[in-house]
Write a structure and sequence with these properties.
Length: 108
C-alpha cells in the first residue's frame, strides 16, 4: 500500500511539472516586440518571358542505347560471380573472404 501511494505521489508530481512546462512553452510573450527597421523590398530585374519560347533546343541523347540482351548478359555474369564468391566463402569461411570484393564490375 505504501508503494502504491509513493508511485501515485511521484506520478502527480511528474504531471504537475509537465503541466508547468507545457504552460510555459505555450504562453504568449508578454514583452512588447522591439521595433525593427523597415527594409525596402528587393525587386528583381525583369526577366524576359520565356514561357512560350520557340528557340529552345531539344535535348539530344548523349548515351548510345544498349540492347537489352547485353544488359541481361551482364546481370547473369554478375549473379554467377556473386554465387561463386558465396560458395567459396561457405567452403572456408574467413573474415578476409567476407570483406573482400568480388570480380564483378557492379558495385555491391
Amino acid at each position: 500500500m505504501e508503494m502504491l501511494l509513493m508511485v501515485l505521489c511521484i506520478s502527480m508530481f511528474g504531471l504537475a511539472v509537465t503541466a508547468l512546462a507545457f504552460g510555459a512553452a505555450t504562453r504568449p510573450e508578454r514583452e512588447a516586440p522591439q521595433e525593427q527597421p523597415q527594409l525596402q523590398p528587393v525587386v528583381p530585374a525583369a526577366a524576359p518571358a520565356r514561357f512560350f519560347a520557340r528557340d529552345l533546343a531539344t535535348p539530344i541523347e548523349t548515351r548510345p542505347r544498349v540492347p537489352i540482351e547485353a544488359l541481361l548478359l551482364q546481370i547473369e555474369s554478375h549473379v554467377r560471380l556473386e554465387h561463386a564468391a558465396a560458395e567459396s566463402f561457405l567452403e572456408s569461411p574467413t573474415s578476409v573472404l567476407l570483406h573482400s570484393k568480388t570480380a564483378s564490375p557492379f558495385v555491391n
